[in-house]
Structure formats: C-alpha cells, structure tokens
Amino acid sequence: MADTLDTSAFRRGLKIEIDKEPWEIVEFQHVKPGKGSAFVRTRIKNLLSGRTIDRTFKSGDVVGKPDVEEKEMQYLYKEGDHYNFMDNKTFDQTFLTEEQMGDAKNFIKDNTTTHIMFFNGKAIGVTLPNSMDLKVVKCDPGVRGDTVSGATKPATLETGYQVNVPLFINEGETLRIDTRTGEYLTRVAG
C-alpha cells in the first residue's frame, strides 16, 4: 500500500482500498460536531462483490489507493455466461462473467465501446456509456391519439431487457435508455 489517501481527499467516485479490496465512494459527508473530533460519513461500494455499506472514518484517517486501471475496450460477443471484450489499441481480449457485468448485460450490444475496470491486472467490471440506443422487438401496438399522461406499457428491447415505455411506442422503433437507471429516456429518430 505505497499510495495512500486521507479523508480530506474523499469525493464521489473516488476509488479506495480497504482490507486489500477496492471500494468506490458513492456518497460522503464531512461532519464537524460541536464536541469531539470531525469525521467523515461515507457509503462505499465494493468493486468486487457489488455490495454497498456505510462506513465512518475519523478525520485524518488514511486509506489505500487501489491498483485500479480503466481501459477502453469494445464488446465483441457473449459465449455461454462470459462476455468477450477487446482492447482497441493492443487487440488483447478479456472476459467478464455475467455476475461481473451486473446490470450492464441488459443494455450491451455488439461493438459497443465500454470501459473495463482492472484491479491488480484482473478485469472486475464494466462501465457503459450513460445511455444506449436499443430497438424495440416486442410491445403492444401504439394507438394514435393515446396520449394519457404518464401511462406506460412494457416493451422488450433487442437485448431481452424489458422497460416501461409511453403508449405511443411501436415495435421496430429505437429508444434511448439510461444505463444507470434502466429507464426509457426518449425515442430516437431513424
């Protein structure tokens, strides 16, 4: 643990190492009580298991800086429950399991450019663009003039993911989906 960070460097998205595991700070709050010393209240997510915990650090506590690297890679194909990615510069290939993919497996399609996170040289996760354009392969037909505010229907996308969409959406249309929340954003022309 050559590189270290103290609590003053904490910010959202910062990667830290605790007990030889990489964590990402999801939320943090510096607290200065009237009595006693200051502390930092955090919510951190384990980058290996995906679980989230709340943890409090005393002001000035030191944590490790993990050996985490992100590489831009292109998604090639799925083989069994493994997803195959290729480095665009070196053409090296790496695999992620369905578990490591998390929710990203609902939105990824061939040739998507992603960021693969490596911890100590081993692939541990993927970051997709914030939104993906996906085609509707199955949904009830849209009805002209059916514009009831807020009414939705289920639609199945080309990746197999099911999302609630407004009533006017039809099969064959392309939709922009937020990969962070899994929600419908807008219809894409073309």
From TrEMBL:
A GO term for molecular function: translation elongation factor activity
Cellular component terms per the entry's GO annotation: cytosol
Domain Elongation factor P C-terminal: 132-187
All copies of domain Translation elongation factor P/YeiP central, residue ranges: 70-124
Subcellular location as annotated: Cytoplasm
Predominant location: cytoplasm
GO terms classed as biological process: peptide biosynthetic process
Keywords, alphabetical: Cytoplasm, Elongation factor, Protein biosynthesis
Pathway of action: Protein biosynthesis; polypeptide chain elongation
Functional note: Involved in peptide bond synthesis. Stimulates efficient translation and peptide-bond synthesis on native or reconstituted 70S ribosomes in vitro. Probably functions indirectly by altering the affinity of the ribosome for aminoacyl-tRNA, thus increasing their reactivity as acceptors for peptidyl transferase.
Family according to the record: Belongs to the elongation factor P family.
Name of the protein described by the UniProt record: Elongation factor P
